[in-house]
Amino acid sequence: MASRLAKSAIGASRVRPVVPFRALPPIATSNSPCRHASNTPAQEPATKAQTLIDALPGSSLISKTAILSAGASLSVWAIANEIYVVTEETITAICTATAFGGIFYYAKPYYVEWAQAHIDKVKGILYQAKQNHRDAISDRAKNVQELGGVIDITKALFEVSKETARLEAQAYELEQKTAVANEAKTVLDSWIRYEGQVKARQQRELAESIISKINKELENPKNLQQILNQSVSDVERAFKMASPEVTSAISQLEDPASTQSNKASGYSELLTRIASDPTSPHLPSNLTAFIESVLGETIGVVAARPLLASAVNAIKTFKDSDSKVQVGTRAVQALESRVVSFEEQDAHLRHTLADAYESQEEWLESAQVLQGINLDSSQRKITDHAKVDTWIRICRLYLEEDDPTTAESYLNRAKNIIYRIPTTGAEAELHINFQLSQARILDSQRRFLDASAAYHNISFNQAVDEEERLKTLSMAITCAVLEPAGPPRSRTLAKLYKDERVAQVPEYGILEKIFLDRLLGPAEVEKFAAGLAPHQLAKTGDGTTVLARAVVQHNLLSASKLYGNIGVRDLGNLLGLGPEKAEEYASAMLQQGRLVGRIDQIEGVIFFDQDTEGPDGRKQAQMVGRELRKWDAKVQGVAEEVERVASLLQARHPDFAQANMVH
């Protein structure tokens, strides 16, 4: 590059004309100093020189001089040895550096001034922030000093919060209890309303039944005449008063001036005079007045007891049951307030009154009178025989009233102590009544098989009259017939059919047909139903009676003995039912195991499985095939169970299974 520049310079000098320096006019220069217009303040030469020296690298003047000398020498040496050649780029770089240096030199004061202003501004902001922070800390410290008692306040608030939480827990607990109580009250109210509705409905039904019975009874002229006569006699008795003689004698005996000994003998004589005329129309009124006077505390308890006992014996002599009821009811009412002192007499009086009610077939009133007897009293000794006899009598009265639930409660009381009473002698009748009551309760509860067994056992008791034994045998057959068809009933019927006495009872015909699996006709069923009790003719949940259901099930079982299969429609015609109802009965008996077979609902056919015999005495091929299929199914079931056990062993104990596996 330097050689090219030199050559071009030489060539240029050859071409261009050379003007001698002396031909050029001299340039006039003025040595007077001039001031250039500039905003930059002029620097002193010493300051400017010092600035240039400071711009050189180095930490001291010697090092700066050395570095400057070394740099100049190195530059001269490099240029002289053509290590570095000055080119247009060098000139351009020097010019650029000079321009940037000038710009930096002249712009530096402005930048420094702006930077210093910015720094001062930031310092002012930071100082102001510092001052604000200091003021905030001072204010906070003052506030904290004002809250010096916050610990005590916090403790107090914590205690208040604990108390509040406790009170809220108690309030929640009380709220829950109140909610539970309200819910319970709502449920109880609903139950009370329901029971009230049930009682109202029962009372309405009872009233309707009673009214219908009364209307039916009133249609009979004989009953109307009897009611009229009874009303007249009741009115006459209501208006009858004690005779003047008895009234005067009682007034004298109640006089406080009389002594106790005179009163006792006077009452005894008065009772003798009253009982001596049993045909007197004033007898009930006289005896009632006598009993009320004796119980009026005019004489002592010791003297009153034998007098009251004699009065009860006098009531027993009445031939008219209405008079017994009238006097006995008044006497029981008078004894209610003093029954503790007259328990023995009260018991005899109640038995007498119960006999009177029973003679009038007032079963419920008779039972209620007997219920008033205190059998757990400590004032008198009551034997087990007396307790059981009273309880069984109440039980039988409730059975006559068709209330087996209450009757069973009294029978259970007797059951707890009847084992203490001997079964022979005079007590044998008590055991018979107990067994008969138990059988009647089972019959009322529709537990017909148990009732049949109980009746049958009573029919073997020699202490019972022969006619009564046949009657209990008849009741045993009736209960067995009413039991739903099935193996248990078949065993009971077989036991009754083998009884030698069964041919003497009217139910023998239907027993024989049922035992021999013969179909029952409507006429036979109606004849049998005529002798049934009302509870045995009650309707079940599906609207049929117990007898109708038992007959349908028996005829269905008999049909299974006659036919191998039968259509549902034909079976309905045979049973007197619709096809759907006949299929429903068959399905129920199949599910309960009382009938063996299957139903093809698509074809509408019922197939019965029966053990029929061939002419040669061997089972038919159908029976053999069915038994083989059953055997195959059992073998298959055993094989499947073995396979399942083997799979479980392989899953849970693979080592054991691998070691003992037989291939």
Explain what the structure shows.
With 663 residues, the protein is mainly alpha-helical. Among the domains are: 1-13 and 71-138, no CATH class; 154-219; 234-382; 546-633, Orthogonal Bundle (Arc Repressor Mutant, subunit A). It contains 26 helices and 3 strands. It has helices at 2-15, 45-55, 61-80, 88-146, 150-218, 221-239, 244-253, 260-275, 283-294, 301-316, 321-335, 343-359, 363-371, 384-400, 404-415, 428-444, 448-459, 466-482, 487-497, 508-515, 522-529, 546-562, 568-575, 579-591, 621-652, 654-660; strands at 565-567, 597-600, 605-608. It has a 3-stranded antiparallel beta sheet. A hairpin with a 4-residue loop joins β2 (597-600) and β3 (605-608). α12 runs antiparallel to α13 (363-371) and α14 (384-400) packs parallel to α16. It is elongated. The two termini are 105 Å apart. Residues 1-38 and 612-624 have low confidence and may be disordered.
Keywords:
663 residues, mainly alpha, three-stranded antiparallel sheet, 3 strands, elongated
**Structure classification:** mainly alpha
Task: Estimate the global geometry from the Cα principal axes.
Answer: elongated
Helix content: over 70%
**Per DSSP, what share of the residues sits in E-state strands of 2 or more residues?**
under 5%
In what order do the strands lie side by side in the largest sheet?
1-3-2
| Low-pLDDT stretches | 1-38, 612-624
Helical stretch count? 26
Order of helices and strands: HHHHHHHHHHHHHHHHHHHHHHEHHEEHH
Q: Mean pLDDT across all residues, rounded?
A: 78
C-alpha Rg, in Å? Answer: 65 Å
Largest sheet, in brief, is: 3 strands, antiparallel
The N- and C-terminal alpha carbons lie at a distance of 105 Å
